[in-house]
Structures are given as C-alpha cells and as structure tokens.
Amino acid sequence: MLLLPAVAVAAEGGAAAVPTVKIQPQQRAGTHVSEATIEAVRQATVAAQVQGRVLEARVDAGARVRQGDVLLRIDTREADQAVAAAAANVSAAQARLVDARAALERTRSLRARNFISAAALDQAQAAFDAAKAQHAAAEAGRAQADASRGFATVTSPLTGVVAQRLTEPGEMAQPGRPLMIVYEPGALRAVADVPQQQIAALGAGRDALRARVEFPESGRWLDAASVTVLPAADPRTHTARVRVALPADAAGVVPGMAARVHFLVGSAPRLTVPAAAILRRGEVTGVYVADGQGGFVLRQLRVGSTLDDASVEVLAGLSGGETVALDPVRAGLVRRKP
Questions:
Q1: How many domains does the chain have?
Q2: Please, are residues 155 and 44 in contact by the beta-carbon 8 Å criterion?
Q3: DSSP letter string, 106-118
Q4: Which candidate in 28, 29, 234, 283 could, as Cys together with 270 as Cys, close a disulfide (CB 3.0–4.6 Å)?
C-alpha cells in the first residue's frame, strides 16, 4: 500500500505528536478466500491384515520412521497353527501324488502289453493329474498361510512421521482396523471446497492460477507452489475441491492444521488501512480520522480480510483521502479544538 509522508498532529498538554498516514484506494489483486485444511500429499493409514492381539507397539505419534521399519507386532499363535496345518496338507498331497505317479507308470506298462484297456489308462492319467493339482493347491495354501503370518509384523509403507497411533498393546486387531497413520512431511497441501459460482473464475487460465495460504493463528503466509482444481463437484454442497500445494520448506506446518487460502482472481481498486491503526472495542471496529482542526474523531468501519502486508481491507466507513492515526490510543487522547 502507498503510504504518504506522516502528518504530525500535536496534542494538548505537550503530548507527543501522533503519527498519521493518508490513505488512498490502490489497485490490488482481487481474492476469493476459502477456509482450508492441511493434509499430506502422501499419507498411509496402516491397517491390520490378520486377527490377533497386539503384542508390541514400537513407535508412537511423532516418531520418524523409514520404509520397512517395524511399527507393531501381532500375536502369531493362530497364524502358526494355520501354517502347520498347511504344511500337513502339502505332505498329504505329496504322498497322494507319489502314489498316483506310481499307479500311472504301472498302468502304462500293462497297457503296453495289452493287459488292460485304454480306458483304464485314461483313468490312471486323470487320477495323476488330479493329485498333481491337489499338490499345487496345497503348496499355494501353505504360501498363503506363510504370508498371513508375515502380516503379523506391521511395517511402515513409507518414510515419514507417525501422525497417530490408533491402538495399544493388549487390544485386539481385526482385519481392516486402522492401527497407525504415517505421512511424509515434505509434501503438504491445503484442501479447500470452493463454491461452484467461483469455479469459472478460478478455472480460467489454470496455468496462471495463483494463491496464497494464510495461517491465521500465527499470521504466517506462504505462496502456493501449484493449484489444482479437481474436475468434479459435490452434488450435495455444490462445491468443488481445490488442492493448493505448499512449498517444500513449510516448516512447522502439519496435517490437520486450519488454514485460509486466498485465490488471486484479478485486480480492482481497494482501500486498506494498516492493521495497527484499527481500534477494536467490543463490537466496534474503527479508526481515528484527523478532523482538520488539530484533533481526531472516531470513524466506525466495516473491514474485510487481513492482507499479507499487515494491512486490512476497508469495506465501508472510509472513501479515501482521509488522514488516519497510526496510534489509535494516543489519538483518542487528543481533544478536538474548539
């Protein structure tokens, strides 16, 4: 915002001069503001694949893990019995296969000397094929049981940070039940739902679409690395989801944080005042405006959003050209001259 030279207005009783600034409308980028939530681009909810009691939880929320690190261990006694049963089935199928192979060889020998019919040979061949298939099925069952036992050791699917631990040792794990949430901290984005009447403005020229992300609690602003408007709308809320990628150096930002996305949608004349000049008393928001007689009068305002240069947009109450006190407390002490 263009700040003209400050005008010193002296107060009665030898008080120090009150710094002021003359405000004028300026051409600024128009914005559409949407509330957003921070989420990780890569995030995995680790769920149980087998049933069993959780024996050990090796990490907790906030821990950094690498891909393949052990997160939890589930009781494997039931899985061990399944592996043993599968191994026994393989042994039985192997014995039947050996017997069927020997029977097939004897039948072939007898058929070669015309002691038996061709139908008998066909039956022996079919019995051998069936035994071979049963042996293959038993081997597959043993491999499946081995894999299920391996699922009792839960490992991290990616390198990142544990966001939540959703189970405790002693609890029962069920297939599909979430156990932990892990995310990569280096790739984050703000997700906002934008009304469909704004989609046309945001979608025009997507290559040049720009946005800034504000964190109201800390007053921090970040430039968006990219903006993606998803090509679908929610039929219930009539909004479209927009993903705003954050820069890689967004330190201190974690998934779940609240944010505010300012989409830049053109430019228009806007009137702003420094945030320090605004006086807030209960439900009254205003500024002290120089009255031209050596004093100040309080002017009530209707304000909009706070911009990234620590100025506040004025929607009503000022028209431009007024001189505003930068220190509203000191300005309130300056009485209007008679």
A1: 4
A2: no
A3: HHHHHHHTTSS-H
A4: 28
pLDDT in tens, 237-270: 888 888 989 988 777 888 888 998 888 776 667 7
Are 88 and 143 members of one domain?
yes
Q: Which tokens go with 83?
A: 């592996």
Query: Quick check: is 1 in a domain?
Result: no
Q: What is the pLDDT of residues 92-125, one digit of tens each?
A: 999 999 999 999 999 999 988 888 888 988 999 9
Q: Please report whether residue 321 resides in a domain.
A: yes
- Residue 245 is encoded by which pair of tokens? 């990628």
Q: What is the dihedral of CA 215, 221, 223, 224, to 10 degrees?
A: 0
| CATH number for position 51 | 2.40.50.100
Q: How far apart are CA 178 and CA 289, in angstroms?
A: 59
Q: Residue 312: how many CB atoms within 10 A of its CB? A: 21
Q: What is the chain's alpha carbon radius of gyration, rounded to the nearest angstrom? A: 37
Whether 38 and 245 have beta carbons less than 8 Å apart is answered as no
For residues 252 and 295, membership in a common domain is answered with no
Q: Please say whether the beta carbons of 245 and 222 come within 8 A.
A: no
How far is 67 from 4, CA to CA, in rounded Å?
57
Q: Are 297 and 337 in contact (CB under 8 A)?
A: no
Query: Cα separations (Å) of 196 from 200, 204, 213?
Result: 8, 13, 20
Residue 205 three-state SS: coil
Provide the residue range defining the domain that includes 194: 32-41+185-266
End-to-end CA distance of the chain: 34
Residue 211 near residue 29 (C-beta atoms within 8 A): no
| Residue 6 resides in a domain | no
With respect to residue 338, please indicate whether it lies within any of the assigned structural domains.
Answer: no
3-state secondary structure 179-194: EEEEECCCCEEEEEEE
Those residues whose C-beta lies under 8 Å from the C-beta of residue 317, and which sit 6 or more positions away, are 286, 287, 299, 300, 301, 302
